[in-house]
Amino acid sequence: MDLAKAGVEDFWVGSPVAPLFAPESVPFMAVALALIGFVFTSFFSLQENMLPTEKEFIEAAIKHKVLSFGSFTLKSGRQSPYFFNAGNFNTGQSLATVSKLYAKTILESGVEFDVIFGPAYKGIPLAASVSIALSQLQNSSASNIHDSSATENKAYPFAFDRKEAKTHGEGGMIVGSSIENKRVLIIDDVITAGTAITNSFELIKKNGGIPVAVVVAIDRQEIASAETSNTSAIQQVYQKFGIPVYPIVKLDTIIEFLASSDSEFNHFLPTIQEYRNKYAC
Asked: Where would I find the Phosphoribosyltransferase domain in this sequence (predicted)?
């Protein structure tokens, strides 16, 4: 045993890395160990880079099967390893959760608006519930301020459109609050080809409104079509209408979440990354 120990010690002393562990090399070792610790921590703590809003949204979307993993054929004909269906936020509890996250994203964006607009059909419950969530967040903030007058009292009116024009009663295509001469914030679930947003933009302008921004649940971060080169549907909206689009999460965030969690869907990660690389914009 002593001979073996002596042999190891002789090998260690003669090793090229031995000087690094000498007393006079302590500062170097401190830096090296700190760097190793940083890399280790960064690799195993990716979720710490995620905003709480993003993490909560992904968890809620998976829980309520809004975000599904597998093999799905999109309208574009692409085979996608994931699918997002906001229609599965179909209970009071799930809708309350997602509406709160929409509201937080809106407030964090700093966009100024007068009316929330939800395109039919999926945008209708979103517009109503997000309006409620914004009011609740406002009241919560006001309760934490001694001088309630310091918090702007906004009513957060909302509106939505009909698929078919109504010829009796109040008539028209817009239901809810008036959008005439108002700054309008469009709420939707996801932008794919951008057709729905184009229709909403034109309808709002036709009725005297001023579209100022769009808030969606997810940015797929992929080219809209082969003809658009490296341009995504969201980028096309900005280029065409000059208004920003604020997503709650991006595909990169979902990839980050799967890579840093013990989710049962982790095995889909390579396929999703391959899809991301293939259609990246």
From this structure: 93-222
Residues with catalytic roles = 166, 168
The span from the CA of 90 to the CA of 249, in Å, is 20
DSSP letter, residue 17: T
H helix count then E strand count, the chain: 9, 8
**Domains of the chain: which residue ranges?**
49-141+154-279
**Cβ-proximal residues to 237 (8 Å cutoff; 6+ apart), any chain:** 191, 194, 197, 214, 243, 245
Q: Are 201 and 127 in contact (CB under 8 A)?
A: no
Per residue of the chain (281 residues), what is the pLDDT tens digit?
A: 454 445 444 544 555 545 544 545 555 544 444 444 443 344 444 445 778 999 999 999 999 999 999 999 987 788 999 999 999 999 999 999 999 999 999 999 999 999 999 999 889 999 999 999 999 998 876 555 444 444 456 889 999 998 776 665 555 789 999 999 999 999 998 887 677 888 999 999 999 999 999 999 999 988 877 665 678 888 888 988 999 999 999 999 999 999 987 778 889 999 999 999 998 87
Q: Is this prediction's pTM over 0.85?
A: no
Helices (H), 1-122: 2-14, 26-44, 52-63, 92-109
